[in-house]
Amino acid sequence: GQNIDQPTEMTATEGAIVQINCTYQTSGFNGLFWYQQHAGEAPTFLSYNVLDGLEEKGRFSSFLSRSKGYSYLLLKELQMKDSASYLCAVLDSNYQLIWGAGTKLIIKP
Amino acid sequence: GAVVSQHPSRVICKSGTSVKIECRSLDFQATTMFWYRQFPKKSLMLMATSNEGSKATYEQGVEKDKFLINHASLTLSTLTVTSAHPEDSSFYICSASPKAGGIYNEQFFGPGTRLTVL
Known about the structure:
The complex is a heterodimer of chains A (109) and B (118).
Chain A: E1 3-5, E2 9-13, E3 18-25, E4 32-37, E5 44-49, E6 53-57, E7 60-65, E8 70-75, E9 84-91, E10 97-99, E11 103-108
Parallel strand pairs in A: 2-11
Antiparallel strand pairs in A: 1-3, 3-8, 4-5, 4-9, 6-7, 7-8, 9-10, 9-11
Chain B: E1 4-7, E2 10-13, E3 19-25, E4 32-38, E5 44-51, E6 57-58, E7 67-73, E8 76-81, E9 90-97, E10 108-109, E11 113-117
Parallel strand pairs in B: 2-11
Antiparallel strand pairs in B: 1-3, 3-8, 4-5, 4-9, 5-6, 7-8, 9-10, 9-11
């Protein structure tokens, strides 16, 4: 079956760095997405990786290793507004988006 | 750019009634639109994919006759929950993509609709 694993919840301190991991087992791979979702709101796009390596976008970076079925989202200089759920999603060989359950990130002052 | 709106944002209805949710792409033509359902503290569940002018493709387990999807134009898709019951209460989210077929890196989400069925 297809599976996306990410931690259920993480806690970090304002100003610090946090890494949210995602491992996947899917039938084929056409890219991996990270979305941010605040409570009661729809997801917003953060990043898309289809090749191995690190993609940096401001305070957020996303890394992909296709051979390991692994990705992480790195958030630097954490701000209180970064408190949200972070969803990992993989596009499989049929171009179906398989969603992880999300990681709830709690930022403490 | 790439704004998707949903209406209404919240709706409360009585059991047995039908509810229509609209999803609009405001500044681009959405060749493909997707409807998701999300339960509290759970991930997104794709319900159906709709392409403009054709019938929606429903995911396994989603009742076509209960969740009617219409994608009549390149900027509007509607989801009608027919004969709603309390178990249909959920957060419904649409997304739109300017590309045909599958989901690519340009997928823009609407703000979601909170449906509560009494």
